[in-house]
Predict the 3D structure of the following.
Amino acid sequence: MPFFFELLEKKIGLSRVGRITLSNEKKKVISTPNIVVPFQNVLMHNFNFLKEFETQDTFLISQDKYLEDDIIREKYGDRGFFYVHSGTLDKFEDILNKKGNFFSQNSVIPIIPFNIPTTTINKEFAVSEVKNFLTSVNKILRNNPTLDFGLSIKVFDYYQLIDLYLPIIKDNDNVKILNFVDLFDNLRNFRNIVKAIVQIKQQLDNNLTLMASGKIIPNLYPMLVYLGIDLIDSSYLQYLSSENFYDALEQLLPIYKMKYLPCSCVACRGKLKDLLNDKYSSEKIILLCLHNFISAKIYINKIKQYLIYEDYRAFVEKASLDNMNVISMLKLLDREYFEDLQYETPVFQENKVINCLGASSYYRPDFREFRERAIKYFTPEPTTKLIILLPCSAKKPYSESKSHRQFFKAIRKFPDFPSFQEIILTSPLGAIPRQFENLYPVNSYDISVTGEWDNEEKTITANMLTSLLEKYDKNIPIICHLEGEYIEIAKKVERRLSHTFHYSDIHERITSKESLQSLESLIRAQKDIYVLSKEGSELEYITKTWHRKFIRTLDYQYGVGAGLKVLPNELKLRKNRTNTRIEIVDNKTRELLGVYKHSSGFIELSIKGAIRLSPFSSLTKIIIFNGEKIKGNTLFRPGIMDYSSELYPRDNVIILDQHKKNVIGVGNMIVSSNFIRNSMTGRVAKIYERDK
């Protein structure tokens, strides 16, 4: 049976968009992330349930009577089914022996169960139980090599038990789904939950489908998807319904407390509202169950919408506010697992507003990645003789804002303005060199502005500014055209460095006529204080702003020096009609070197542009292809001989032939180098130009 998971797109954190192919012949495909809905008597005989879930992708069978061809094949032939057995392993094996052909012919995935009568056991007993279970599992897998399975993983609150499962998963290719049975039952163990998930991601094939079962309620779904869970078993909602709980998304509420039903589903519109106070009504339980499953379905669809088309991280931050343990989990991921998230998170998102919701946004992985890359790869232009610190603006990019246009008028009165380095201070990103203002996330973020900064915001900005200014000669004057708490940050940095800081006089507001005159006076007084070195004084100013930005953008993408290698002094820029991209052309050779995209602030190099980066040995964005020519628009894992260790999703990547001499393609990464290391199949990069 051709079960396989295909990763289509990486998203922020560990989240991902994919699809599971259950059958090529019947075109059974499941989109992920998704919920799995129980296939139960009480639901299957309810007309409204059948109508609401007639397009549902996935169902979970737990009753043996539904393991029949006429039910699965004839009525639900294009759906995905998973079978979970609630009895012993011996009984499960008997069912496999009797129904093996049924599973393979109908693309039903049996999940090997781990059922013991108690959940409260000590670690020694838990280890013994897991080892005994895995011995039986190994036998089942070896006896059914042509059948694909899900494997139940139970850890009994001892996350270290994950280690026991890894060898059997690695040794058996017919394990396709990892079903975490109890990992999320106790969220107070959030540290262990994160450790277990990260360990799975680091050590196992990233094409394994991850499934979460157990005591899972819908308000946990956003975090589960952020952790890379592909399938969520919604069966627990049946139990909650029987206990008279109503899913209001933000939290579960006892039905007897409900006076105003916030939902307009078929159950809430119908008789449920009339049965709220009927304590022993079986009809109420069925309607409550219907509402809870509809609510879960709506929520997973909302999650998929945000995951694909909006800023999913902000969605997770807002959803986490309803659970303190989820907030803690998010903080832990940001602070202690950034190096892991770094390889999973795309380096940019396109055409999205990135809302910063407060402290929970300060260390989100794309923000941290920007700060680290900016500090690592930004180098001073050798002609710099003055540094000017400016405040940020609400409009992005900053240079299009009213305040920064006024700053420009003052600064560009001086013919030698290209030798002035502007740095913009902002929260929560830090300190932004003017050349980076069009890069994601600088071009996309938004934050509420009150004029007050908390200590963490000040620390982030001060630390980044310090790191940038340390790259400059201490004799270069620094002008601060700032006000309010920006001044406090500048003063904090001034105490750390040997540079001389000069502060303009602010009258009423920072863009007032008097304030701008003060800025001009300071520039006039300080711009010739620093004498350029012989090397710097002999260099020609690169006067065009976009040219300077492109050079530093390529450094940001490929490493220090890349920009000057690729871009000559004379460029011709060709904008498209909608002004969404700029073609960068060598004015002498007429070669197209790359295309700049406004939506991301990144440059997609052409093959001609990529060739200029040779020799390639020092570059960190390279893939060695196992051949001479690439066919098609997608590079798959089997075609890769070697690769750089620092490839991230959506990185621009150069593809060399097997001899490591010729550039045969350029593309954008779908996955990271971690995925390539752990997987033998799957999409790796989208090719936008290949050598023909």
Observations:
- The chain is about 35% helix and 20% strand.
- The longest strand covers residues 16-23.
- The radius of gyration is 29 Å.
